[in-house]
């Protein structure tokens, strides 16, 4: 019997240097299942992220939208300015919307974020009973819904957020890359 060929060292065996922001979806990605409304909400989140960058904060923006499609809050990353480690964009919109609603739970809401949420924010989304999370770019270092952990839709928790990613990921990644380049 002929001995089988050993599999060769295929193309792509070597990984390029790992970067924080995943940009693989920028080229040749299949069309994503997002509506034009989704896109317009994410564009508002990107504008908030640009404001954060202008303030010297890591550019991350978020928009919280009700089940009826009404914007409940727009927020941006501000931990430096507020001297508050919890002042992430997601926490900002959850706080504002919960205060307006008079309820820490925001069932039926969708959150649009320009970067994959961290551990703290992923946990807060579950506690707030957010129905759907749409994020743009992955955060390979701190991302807690896909990259490092999968907290938002974990079968171990009592509430699962529907997670969709990649909407306007290139725009979000470029914003972040420019920000970090400028700081070097
Ligand atoms: Zn966060």
How would you describe this structure to a colleague?
This protein has 184 residues and is of the alpha/beta class. The chain contains five helices and five strands, in the order αββααβαββα. A five-stranded mixed β-sheet has the order 2-1-3-4-5. The longest helix is centred in the N-terminal third of the chain and has 19 residues. It binds zinc ion.
Q: Could you give the topology of this structure?
A:
Elements: H1 36-54, E1 61-65, E2 71-76, H2 79-82, H3 89-101, E3 110-115, H4 119-127, E4 132-137, E5 162-165, H5 169-183
Parallel strand pairs: 3-4, 4-5
Antiparallel strand pairs: 1-2, 1-3
Helix pairs in contact: 1-5
The structure holds zinc ion.
Report the strand count: 5
- Tell the overall outline: globular
**Element string (H = helix, E = strand):** HEEHHEHEEH
- Share of helix among residues? 25-40%
Largest sheet: 5 strands, mixed
Bound molecules: zinc ion
Q: What's the Cα radius of gyration?
A: 18 Å
What is the topology, as strand order, of the major beta sheet?
2-1-3-4-5
Low-confidence stretches: 1-19
Q: Kindly estimate the percentage of residues that lie in beta strands according to DSSP.
A: 5-15%
Give the overall average pLDDT. Answer: 89
Distance between the termini: 60 Å
Give me the secondary-structure category: alpha/beta
How many helical elements?
Answer: 5
């Amino acid at each position: 019997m002929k001995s089988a060929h050993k599999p060769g060292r295929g193309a792509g065996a070597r990984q390029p240097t790992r970067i924080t922001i995943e940009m693989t979806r920028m080229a040749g990605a299949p069309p994503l299942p997002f509506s034009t409304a989704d896109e317009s909400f994410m564009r508002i989140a990107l504008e908030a992220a640009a404001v954060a960058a202008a303030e010297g904060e890591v550019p991350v923006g978020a928009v919280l939208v009700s089940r009826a499609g009404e914007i409940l809050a727009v927020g941006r990353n501000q931990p430096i300015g507020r001297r508050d480690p919890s002042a992430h964009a997601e926490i900002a919109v959850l706080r504002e919307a919960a205060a307006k609603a008079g309820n820490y739970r925001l069932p039926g809401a969708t959150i649009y974020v320009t970067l994959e949420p961290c551990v703290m924010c992923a946990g807060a989304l579950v506690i707030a009973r957010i129905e759907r999370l749409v994020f743009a770019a992955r955060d390979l270092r701190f991302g807690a819904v896909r990259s490092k952990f999968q907290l938002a839709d974990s079968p171990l928790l009592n509430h699962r957020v529907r997670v969709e990613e990649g909407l306007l990921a290139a725009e979000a990644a470029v914003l972040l890359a420019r920000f970090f380049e400028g700081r070097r």
